[in-house]
Amino acid sequence: MNIFKANTSHIPLIRNLTMQVWPQTYTPIIGADQVTYMLERFYNPDALTAQMNDQGHQFIIAETDGIPAAFASYSEVEPGIYKLHKLYTTLAAQGKGLGRALIDYIIADIQAKNATMLRLNVNIHNHAAKQFYARYGFRHLLDEDIDIGSGFYMNDHVLCLDL
Predict the structure, then answer these.
(1) Fold annotation for 2-118
(2) Would you call 48 exposed, middle or buried from its count of C-beta atoms within 10 A (0-12, 13-18, 19+)?
(3) Radius of gyration of the chain (CA)
């Protein structure tokens, strides 16, 4: 397994990985219309470029046998507090330790920057993801409903891991 930092040249790859994960994972949870809306809003090339260049999101990509199979992004949102914005593994690569390896990488990176907490949002109905984060040691902090426009909401648990 190899994990490396991504930049804007990797946006086509990130979009490709997203399309391998999002429709299959989220359509049963939030419906096809919201999946389409969120992909167009948050995963178009301009949005990903802004996340990298303007919003300070660090993207990382994990490969197995030289094949990209997962990615994550994170950034500091308050002094010492980082947010895991994205963590997605292709369905074929799930269960092979890539998610854990990505979180381990992120924690090592942010602890070197004196981080005290890693937070994330997870859809309240994404049971597999919630179980994964619970096994890692994340705890429930609060719930929030985020209006993302066009009548759509993200209904999330906010989880955190004290570092």
Answers:
(1) Aminopeptidase (3.40.630)
(2) buried
(3) 15
